[in-house]
C-alpha cells in the first residue's frame, strides 16, 4: 500500500462550492470544510482538498499543483487551459448571455454592432460575436458587471445568468444566449497510474451518486 493522495481543487466559497462539497460527501468521502482552513485531507479516501478562488483552479490543474478540479465550464472555456474534462457534474447550471437595458428595443444581434459591451468573459463574448459577423468592443471588468449600462460604462453586458434576479434588479433584459455552462470535473493531462486508479474510484462513486439522483 502506498500513501499517495490525489489533490483536488474546489471553490472556497461561491456558486460552485456548496454543491461541490455536497457531491464529495455523498460519495462517502469524509473531510473537514468551512472555516479558514484551505487544505483538508480525507480520513477515509486518498484525497486532499484545496479550497481556492474559482478563477485560479484551471491553471493549478494545468500546472499539476492540483490533480483534479471542480470548475464551471464558463471559466474553463474563457481561459483555455490544457486540462482534461473528466465528467459533467450536472450542478451550477447557468448561461452566459448578452443583456441590454430593459427599455431598449432589440431586434437581433446587429444591435451590438459598434457597441461597447462590459463583461468578465471577453474571449467567449468576442468569439461569439465574431462568429455572428458582429464587430463590438468588449470592456473587461471582473465583477458587478450589471451596473455597467446604468453608469455609462457600456451599452450592453455579457454575463452569467442563473435565476435572472440580478438582471431584473438592475433594469436589464437578456437578449441572446452565448454559452451554456455547468460544473465539470477536470484533471491534469499527465496523471500517474496510481493517481489514475484513485480517479477511477472517485468517478465510480460519482457515477453511483448521479444514478441515484435520476
Ligand atoms: C454572478 C453573475 C451574475 C449573477 C447571476 O455573480 O456574474 O452577476 O451571479 O445570478 P442570477 O441570475 O441568479 O442573479 P456573482 O454573484 O458570482 O458575483 P461576481 O459577478 O461579482 O463574481
Ligand atoms: Zn474598453
Ligand atoms: Mg464570480
From TrEMBL:
UniProt pathway: Amino-acid biosynthesis; L-histidine biosynthesis; L-histidine from 5-phospho-alpha-D-ribose 1-diphosphate: step 1/9
Cofactor(s) this protein cannot do without: Mg(2+)
Record GO terms (molecular function): ATP phosphoribosyltransferase activity
Activity control summary: Feedback inhibited by histidine.
Keywords: Amino-acid biosynthesis, ATP-binding, Cytoplasm, Glycosyltransferase, Histidine biosynthesis, Magnesium, Metal-binding, Nucleotide-binding, Transferase
Keyword presence, Transferase: yes
Protein EC: 2.4.2.17
Catalytic function, reaction form: 1-(5-phospho-beta-D-ribosyl)-ATP + diphosphate = 5-phospho-alpha-D-ribose 1-diphosphate + ATP
Cellular location(s): Cytoplasm
Top EC class for this record: transferase
Residue span, ATP phosphoribosyltransferase catalytic domain: 53-207
Biological function: Catalyzes the condensation of ATP and 5-phosphoribose 1-diphosphate to form N'-(5'-phosphoribosyl)-ATP (PR-ATP). Has a crucial role in the pathway because the rate of histidine biosynthesis seems to be controlled primarily by regulation of HisG enzymatic activity.
Family under the similarity heading: Belongs to the ATP phosphoribosyltransferase family. Long subfamily.
Name the UniProt record assigns to this protein: ATP phosphoribosyltransferase
Portion of the full-length sequence here: 1 to 214 of 287
Amino acid at each position: 500500500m502506498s500513501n499517495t493522495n490525489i489533490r483536488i481543487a474546489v471553490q472556497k466559497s461561491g456558486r460552485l462550492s456548496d454543491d461541490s462539497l455536497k457531491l464529495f460527501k455523498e460519495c462517502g468521502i469524509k473531510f473537514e470544510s468551512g472555516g479558514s482552513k484551505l487544505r483538508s485531507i480525507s480520513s477515509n479516501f486518498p484525497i486532499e482538498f484545496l479550497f481556492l478562488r474559482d478563477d485560479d483552479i484551471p491553471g493549478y490543474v494545468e500546472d499539476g499543483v492540483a490533480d483534479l478540479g471542480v470548475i464551471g465550464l464558463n471559466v474553463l472555456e474563457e481561459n483555455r487551459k490544457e486540462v482534461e474534462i473528466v465528467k459533467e457534474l450536472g450542478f451550477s447550471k447557468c448561461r452566459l448571455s448578452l443583456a441590454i437595458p430593459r427599455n431598449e428595443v432589440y431586434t437581433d444581434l446587429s444591435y451590438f454592432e459598434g457597441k461597447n459591451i462590459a463583461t468578465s468573459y471577453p474571449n467567449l463574448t468576442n468569439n461569439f460575436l465574431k462568429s455572428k459577423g458582429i464587430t463590438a468592443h468588449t470592456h473587461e471588468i471582473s465583477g458587478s458587471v450589471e451596473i455597467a449600462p446604468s453608469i455609462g460604462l457600456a451599452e450592453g453586458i455579457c454575463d452569467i445568468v442563473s435565476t435572472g434576479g440580478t438582471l431584473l434588479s438592475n433594469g436589464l433584459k437578456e437578449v441572446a444566449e452565448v454559452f451554456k455552462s455547468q460544473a465539470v470535473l477536470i484533471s491534469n493531462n499527465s496523471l500517474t497510474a496510481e493517481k489514475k486508479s484513485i480517479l477511477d474510484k472517485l468517478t465510480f462513486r460519482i457515477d453511483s451518486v448521479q444514478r441515484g439522483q435520476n
